[in-house]
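sorry for the late reply, my laptop died twice this morning and i had to redo everyting from scratch. anyway the thing you sent over, i finally got around to it. pasting the sequence first so we're on the same page, its 897 residues, then the predicted structure underneath. double check i copied it right bc i was rushing
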Amino acid sequence: MRNYLINLLSLVAVVASISSCTPEKSPFDISPADALDPKRAQEPYPNISLPEDIDLESPIWKGIDLSPQPPVVPLSANEQLKTFVMQPGYQLEPVLSEPQIREPAAIQFDGNGRMYVLELRTYMQDIDANGELMPTSRISRWEDTDNDGVYDASVIFLDSLVFPRYVVPFGKNTILSMESNEDNVYKYTDTDGDGKADKKELFASGLGRSGNVEHQTSFLTWSLDNWMYSTYNSRRIRWTPDGVIQEPTGNPWGQWGVTQDNYGQTWFQDGAGGVPQSFQFPLVYGNFGVKGQYKDGFREPFSLVKLADFQPGMRETKPDGSLSNVTGSAGNDVFRGDRLPKEIQNKYFYGEPVGRIVRQVEVEKTEGLSYIQNPYRDAQSEFIQSTDPLFRPVDMATAPDGTMYIVDMYRGIIQQGNWTQDGSYLRAKIQQYQMDDIIGNGRIWRLTYEGMERNKEKPRMYEETSAELVLHLSHPNGWWRDMAQKLIILNQDKSVVPDLENIVKTSTNELERIHALWTLEGLNSLRVDLVRQLMGDSNPAIRMQALRTSETLYKYGDKSLADDYKAMVNDSHVEVALQALLSAYILDIEGLEDLIKNSIQANQTQGFQVIGPQLLEKLAEKEKLSETQFEPEQLALFTQGKTIFDSYCSTCHGPKGLGTPTGGGQLIAPAFSGSPRLMGHPEYAVKTLLHGLTGDLDGKEYEGVMIAMDSNDDEYIAAVLSYIRNDFGNSGSFISPEYVAEIREKTAGRDEMYQFDELVQEVPKAMIYQDNWKTSASSTALQGVGSTKDPSYAFSFKGWKTDGAQAPGMWYQVELPQAKKLTELQFDAGRKEFPISYAVSISSDGVDWQEVATAQGHEGLNTVQWESDSNSRFLKIESKENGDEPWAMKQLTLFAR
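ok and here's the structure:
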């Protein structure tokens, strides 16, 4: 309530100030701090009160200065301009700011050059993230009516939204968007021209996620190939005249930001990882590991803010208090405009809002592979730096005027509430500088260059004919080319097909030819003879695009193109040859495995030597999955869990379950492969996902925090855990949605994350077999020549089984030296030698028995659980049915609380 009132008063004061502005005083001169509290800068924040149970000797607190400090003061936009440190010749100018907009997180321009602003008005309005999912966010639309470079007219196109994930202009007065915790993308249209959407239609399903708002789908970017890509989804979608279709892709790895370069290579911006992702090849071909793709030192930011207010704490802090390793990033753009120097055209940019920098990326192509670096690293600098702690660059975009726009959320807290909880390092640092009070602001900047004027021509594409739109395919600004291609395809006007074919054949403008080619593909008017002609073009970039567009023709049935792919694997240009191999792979042409193997032998370039073996691995993985021994229900969980893991968990835990290293060599999160915690009792894993986990794990500290995932349903939790327990070399029991539901109900009253020590104390633990355990059975067979009839073999890999076919009344018994609160047993059974049905009983004296569970046996790992308040020394398993095969068990494990 305190922050809400402060913000309301701030808004009223600023609006009042603006209404009385003289011509000499711009709205960008009004400081939010003036309305917040004019004395704020002179009043130091009081001592921080830490929870009593905080261990100040812990590494997270070692060397931390929590002494009272003057609060951070928000500046006006014009004051903030003085805080930027930029490369020579570059300048920033404000085009829009608070109070007109609040909490801007992303922007997009429509075909008439109007700017849509995604305003996440509920993001971290206090340090506890209260009201985060209130329906008060919005999408506003802005115009510069007098063409002076400042946006002055607006409408609220869509209001009362629950933390919207993106805004995508999709034709005249139409956008696509999706709210948090939703699975559907909707198309919103203003049908009466009043500037407000009044029609809502389902566009696509299956693209959403639930859970933490930072870990949900973002952006939906129409790429050169006429498909749309988003973060977290291992699939792409495509609008067609007959409806929206989907295809599987690799894992985008991104969190906030999807963009493309001039040649349709998509780039995804990882959030927690802090680096670009999936930029080697188009995502449809899958993921590929390229050692050294981030050059040495790429992860080191050069920040001018020295408050040490970073979630990882001092281990990611330089001695001067600045950030030592990228820890969060958001928003991205391959700048494709024409009103900034050529040195940055078609270069990738992204924001690091924790470090308060904008990073430029330089790509070095070596034998078909990409390696990236910060071009200003040697100078220990960045493309844009700021000394203002409130500079939070979260998005950027190539604008219709040929410049780059940068979205600055301009706020105190940039991390979501799961990382600012009571007792956390980050919370203490935020409160030390009173940054939790600075909310409700936001600026949008235009990047310019000395001597280069912005393009003042206003787009009017919605009023233009398809023939007029074709002319924009040669525009030097990539935004114009992209929008024209998109609108021609949405119009589905095939009258321009002859013009497009003529461009492809005769134009001397490489990028115009490429856009015309893909526009033909989007109009379903691409001819195989034209594609084959382009496969022989002298320009390797054209040959590559011909291969990519031909994939559509192959899918539609022209399998003769397989011969072209096989021939072009031998192209003299390594990137073309690699593209041919990738096209052959994704289309699974006949003889693919031999083609890959032969190409590895014939082409010794890095590209083929790195990518070829990985393609073979992917083929083997597909075959392995098709031959899995899982039951149908288990296979369904495994497959769903793999998709979830690849799309989300792998960011921190690594694609192979080995953890993701930070720049300093530490792991963001623990490995899953062989983890005794994950492979132990499933209750540990389920409670961890439902409620989150913090604290040292077995004495080891990790950068990441496992947040609660309880907003996901039981099947989601069961699937991802079942997958983790049965991949990465693991072989564990599957976890059913019913079991997750049971744990969810039992812990429904819990409202805080688990501490590691607390969780391991309450979870059942596997009891290791000891020599003083007594085992007996009604029947025991010899297990191999020279063996004895020893029932204790049930606890080993060797195993135990009955001497003859199973029958009712056969039993297996364990006597413990001390009474334990037994709660579960597990055993592995062979293909045929499993108990058909059985009962489990416990006893304190071996005389009086209590039956606690019954179950049906099956091949593989069998698990039986029960609840009991009493301690027991004896456990008995008893067969209930006749069978044709013996009853066998190996790796028997007992669990006790």
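The chain is about 25% helix and 20% strand.
thats about all i looked at so far, will dig more tmrw
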